[in-house]
Amino acid sequence: MEHKIYLFGLNHKTAEVEIREKFALTGFNPISQKLVEKEGPVLEALVLSTCNRVEILCVGLSEQHLVREKVMDTWAGFCQADPDLLSSHIYTSTDRDAVRHLFSVAASLDSMVLGEPQILGQLKDAYRKAVEEHSTGVIINRMLHKSFSSAKRTRTETAVSSSAVSISYAAVELAKKIFGELSLHRAMLIGAGEMAELAALHLLNNGLKEILVANRTLERARELAHRFKGQPLCLEDLFKYLPQADIVISSTGSSSAIIRARDLSEVLKKRKHRPMFFIDIAVPRDIDPDVNQLDNVYLYDIDDLQEVVEENLAGRKEEARKAEKIVDQEVDKFEKWLSSLDLSPTIVDLLNKGEAIARKEVKKSLRNLPQEVDPKTIQILEHLAVSLVGKLYHEPIVFLKRRAQEEGSAEKFIDLARKIFNLDEEQIPENAHTEKKRK
User: Fold this and answer.
1) pTM of this prediction exceeds 0.70
2) Backbone conformation region of residue 307, classed left if phi is above 0, alpha if psi is from -120 to 50, else beta
3) One domain for residues 120 and 193
4) Domain residues for 85?
5) How far apart are the C-alpha atoms of 185 and 202, rounded to whole Å?
6) Is residue 250 within a helix (H) or strand (E), and if so which, with residue range?
């Protein structure tokens, strides 16, 4: 029977956050294990669940309605929600479209922030969990490995993941251009705005030496300083400590500017006119534009940063077009491999049966050992056993592919292979051969 590839999902483009929350599959949810039940319509499955998407990739029977019904009922059941509500928000892709969607996701071409690197790690985690649950098989294994290599190509051959495309990230990239190595510099966070906090976190993640936190409410300053492992300050002491800061990120709720050019003359003298970088993310602005007139002072407000982001995003979109061509090439390669299985599901069944036997024998052997074996060793033994199966089956599979190319030979050799390896699990009496010989 013909097998098809399916992808069912919700993402930020097709479902509001309220719907995505309702059908999120975070934490330990062995849903892929539940999907792949014996004699069910789903043969392989993988679940990807992030804040912006929930997607289920599966290989199943050609009757799409049976596969969809199984996925919807199982998914909604885990979430204790209405499967009809889920079904009304789902997008579905099959075969090449499903493969291309997966490769685009891996390459972060389908992300809310184009080119963001986190999704590839999340996809690798999802694949690892599916493998641990034994819900993947030959097709999904190959598909995921090819999606990873495709993503690597898009990152090395294009600049789709380079340049800043968020306000906070843009601020950090500008700071690095001004100061170079950040490990020798301090920053001051004025106020507790969300984007300012995020920029501070980006700075610390890029090796910033230390951060000072100034706020009208000292308790809030202490809270943030503890989070950033920095020093809390009262806002009244701002100009006392400002000379220590190379980078200043301001995001208060003040209705008028709290820093002006005349306020910085003494600060710059104490700093011996070393450069200062001001990031004003407040609206209304915290820092008067006249600060830009001072030597060795760099001021960027939220509009300046947004302009940088838009320029970089335009560049990423251009690179994304190159990345999409790479994805198409990799999808073509995967389809070519997949077409080699069209001689029948025999090769898939053969490898699946071999892998199942290998894992079963490893478990049986482990039970006979005098002491418990650590998980890493078990993983190595399973990999060894499965690899041996693959090598043992390599020549028979090559033989089948060659015979399938001969006109009129495919059906005969496929039927013979299924009988030799009993892939249909027919009950054969132990004395069948001797009985036949007597007759």
Assistant:
1) no
2) alpha
3) no
4) 3-157
5) 14
6) strand 247-251
The kind and range of the H/E element at 279 are strand 276-280
Residues in Cβ contact with 350 at an 8 Å cutoff, skipping those fewer than 6 apart: 393, 396, 397, 417, 421, 423
Residue that has been written with the tokens 């090769």 in this structure? 347
Beta strand pairing call for 247-251 and 186-191: parallel
Query: 246 in helix, strand or coil?
Result: coil
What is the DSSP secondary-structure string of 351-364? HHHHHHHHHHHHHH
The active-site residue out of 51, 58, 79, 234 is 51
HSE toward the beta carbon, residue 422, CA cutoff 13 A: 5
Q: Specify the pairing of strand 247-251 against strand 231-234.
A: unpaired
Are 32 and 121 in a shared domain? yes
Phi and psi, residue 265, nearest 5°: -60, -45
DSSP tag of 260: -
Model confidence over 207-247: pLDDT tens digits?
998 999 999 999 988 988 888 889 999 999 999 999 999 99
Q: What span, in angstroms and rounded, lies between the C-alpha atoms of 247 and 185?
A: 8
Q: Six-digit token pair at 125?
A: 């985690």
Token pair belonging to 409:
């030979």
Residue 326 lies in a domain: no
Tokens of 312: 């970089």
Q: What is the pLDDT of residues 377-410, one digit of tens each?
A: 888 998 899 889 889 988 888 888 887 766 556 6
Contacts of residue 384, Cβ cutoff 8 Å, sequence gap at least 6: none
Same domain, 52 and 103: yes
Among this protein's residues, is 51 annotated catalytic? yes
Preceding omega of 429 cis (within 30 degrees of 0): no
The size of the chain, in residues, is: 439
207: nearest Cα among 186, 227, 193, 224 = 186
C-beta separation of 232 from 225 below 8 A: yes
User: How many domains is the chain built from?
Assistant: 3
Structure confidence by residue, pLDDT tens digits, 120-160: 988 999 999 999 888 998 889 989 999 999 999 998 999 88
Beta-strand relationship, 42-49 and 53-61: antiparallel
Q: Are 409 and 403 in contact (CB under 8 A)?
A: yes
**DSSP-assigned states of every residue in 28-78:** S-THHHHHS-TTSSEEEEEEEE-SSEEEEEEEEES-HHHHHHHHHHHHHHH
